[in-house]
Amino acid sequence: MKTLLHRHRELCERAVDPLEIAAGLEAHGLTDRAAARFRHRDVFSLAEELYARVPRTTEPRPRPEALPAPRVRAGWVLLTLLPGALGAATVTGLRLTHGHPRLLVALGGLLAVALATRAALRHGPLAGPPGTRAWDTALAARARRTEAGPRAPHIAMGTRARRTAIGTRAWTLWLLGYALAGDGLLHAVLAGGPDTLPTGAPDGPWPLATAPVLALLSACAPAAWSAHLLAAGARRRLAGSRGLEDFTAAVKPLLLGVSALFLGALAALLALCGTVLHAPAALPQDLTLGALLLLARLLTVHRHRRAPALALGAAAATEAAALALPLAGRLPGCAVLAAPVDTLVGAWGEAAVPALACGTAALALLWHAGRTLTRASAHAPTGAPE
Fold this sequence. Notes:
This protein is mainly alpha-helical. It has 16 helices and no strands. It has helices at residues 2-7, 9-14, 18-27, 32-36, 43-53, 74-96, 100-122, 134-148, 154-190, 210-218, 220-240, 244-276, 283-301, 306-328, 339-348, 352-372.
């Protein structure tokens, strides 16, 4: 016990209640089974003893309320509706214009949608915790290095966080771009093209799938509500739990429930957009992409950035390989390279490529989220970043 006290003294001294200590111990890998070695039934009971043993070096601070649930604010609700509204306006403008004005509408719409999506991801339930954005982390690390001298190790962590964030954004943009033009481009590549640039017309040689992208933009609102329900439900269960296993057992159904709720909302949006725009509803590939993006954002919000970046990168690399292999197969003696893509598309169509890539990555993230987002440290103030 003395060794444990010495190792976590700083955590115990600054904690305002045993709950912070329990979450911090769990973040360092201490489980209920490990707590049994200290003659305690779980980590929560061990945290209470540590809290009682460590003297307060300052005047006792007022005991905070038990993790109040995040509030629903009109600001973030409106922000999450903005990407879908601007996306609908852009699609309408593209259908009403031709030639040079259509290009201007497309560029302006892309800029407006990008800014609106960025704002939606920086406020409300989809925003990361304060001070954990990659740029803020890099600046803080630079400041610490200035104070501590050239040997401060924090700058490397800040650089890695910034690179991870940049990679996550790049892979997300690729996946959304593939949802817009990937199936049409793959069809053109397998047919011997592409011979022309996309015209945006549904019956063109390289059609753009605007309905799925519009549905994904509109899904920012249900994604925010799903993140809000997960955070609120997890904090309620955290306040009433007396053991890590009890908390995990209670949060796993909640995680699966909010994911299913989001997928149901996304399926409805895909059907609605497909009906309005007279386009087929691409359910398999877009549902898997939506699930992948939701799980990646939930993990990012709760300070786990590395796994989302890897999963998004793997899905993007698979889609890029599906486009590159048929092109490489045109080289003399390299026809075998195109065989896997030809076989997959011949059996299931072009939609099989993004469905397989995003579905596999989404399942991997769901497994990872089931191990990380069901821990108390992910929802308590002391949640440790990955």
